[in-house]
Fold this sequence. Notes:
By secondary structure, this protein is of the alpha/beta class. Helix content is 47%, strand content 13%. Helix 1 packs across helix 5 and helix 17 (464-470) packs parallel to helix 19.
Amino acid sequence: MADDQNRHDEETPGTRPETVFDGLAVAPGIAIGEAHLRDCRTLPIPEYRLATNRIPAEQQRFAAAVAKTRRQIGALRTKARGLPDAAAEEVGYILDAYHHMLSGSRLIRGVESRIETMRINAEAALEAEIQEISAGFMAMKDSYLAQRADDICSVGNRVLQNLIGEPTRGFTPVPKGSVIVSDQITPADAAQMDPRRVEGMAAALGGAEGHTAIMARALGLPTVLGASNLLSGVRNGTMLIVDGGSGRVIADPTPETLALYRRRIEDLQRKQRALARLRKRPATTTDGTDILLQANMELPVELTQVLQAGAMGIGLLRTEFMFMNREDLPDEEEQYDLLTSLIGGMGGQPVTVRTLDIGGEKIAVSLVDEVGSSAASVLGLRGIRLSLKLRGLFETQIRAILRAGAHGPVRILLPMVSSVSEVRRARESIKSVAGRLRRRGVPIADPLPPVGVMIEVPGAALAADAMALAADFFSIGSNDLTMYTLAIDRADERVAYLYDPLHPAVLRLIQFATQAALRARIPVSMCGEVAGDPRFTALLLGLGIRDLSMSAHSIPRVKQRIRELDLAAATQRANQILEQTDLGRIATLLDDFNGLA
Ligand code: PEP
Ligand code: MG
């Protein structure tokens, strides 16, 4: 759990003291740059004059956006109550202040009056009012008041986002070299980060295994989440160090701290150069067993990194990126073009396309109406359930995959499967889509792509024998498997300390599913985050897994670990670990074996 009581106070006359915020180590690496508070003055603002008879409707539209923002802040406030006492108090104080700014404040009154007297739309009126109030605060050259100017921007921008109805455009334009700071960064937000402009990310909320965290690792952006009272000490332009390996954010570092971290960056770069030399070497254990290392892909921009890392294919293409940050759905041609270019880019290596797994924290605005209140539920209408309900959506995606499969090897992977009948129904759909395309003479993958099942729901793991008869391959998703087995929200920083894939229940499910696949002689891979963590490599190989799919950035480190491993010893240690029931004992046995303890 993030604990932010740890603060340095090295006052230098005339400067702000160095402050340390502790959070969750989410994506390794060190970023140094100026803070860019995500909400401040970044949205494109529409501007137009209103006919007099439209003014009441415009006031109503503004009131609705304010009410929605109040509800959002109320929800954040509830979430913040679970933080440690001091942090809860501080974050609560800020959110209360935000709430207050939305009730009859100068900001709200000012906007209402501009709409009325200047006859301009609500967005333009709000933007002008934010500018005027924050300029007034900034002119007072006082750090406390400057922070209030940022608060006005934050609140104002939330209302703007709700007015514009586009919640995800908050990160453009970002000054080059910035560190993005926010109360919360959603996966859709993270998908918009350009690693050439952004140095790193830090947020007050968020767990270490949520999709934002995965996206950060995929982009190679040093990131700390769950640094609870971060926003109380950081404003636009604050110099920041984000140490994504230790989960630490340092604001206004002293020259000594800066020098120390610059040396650490050089050190990390040296290590990365050494690892890069492994690119062309095989991932073979000391006793000569070949391990297949593939890449997980969240965004097409990762292709270069995937190729540079020497991945032997894409073991998991998360197709959600095609559906996020837009209001419409991608049509068949758009999906086909994207997939075809990825397949072409992989030059004959297989691409495993996972069908849409929207739901939970991954929201597609275009599907909210269809999904209703299930949209944000991790137990709701998501993954394969959604695809089987919205057949048109599923079949469009399948048509695109099958057509793209004419250009190179693809596999189809079904997410969130909980029963064999879902696999059967999905297969029937795939077969009938293929039949229709063939009859129309459209070139498609021939033979049809293998259809695999994600093993990420405990029920699917426990029914692995039956699943293995219905599926062509398994891909074990330890991220969700851990979440559902232990009933711990992977994106919630308040329960992050309980989230542990080494829990004996999770390990047994992985073992059970792997053995079922081996008995049925179907390929089984691990594509959860543990695949990319060298701490788990010996254990996974020891359990019988020979295919690993991970963020491209992790491939060199895992390959290095594989090349020093003796499989017989790893198998023996894995068996020993699986006999344990105590989590501490399991961790010790693993770390001893890894030579870390
Ligand atoms: C998993 O759950 O382990 C997985 C790989 O899928 P995602 O992280 O996309 O939910
Ligand atoms: Mg999953």
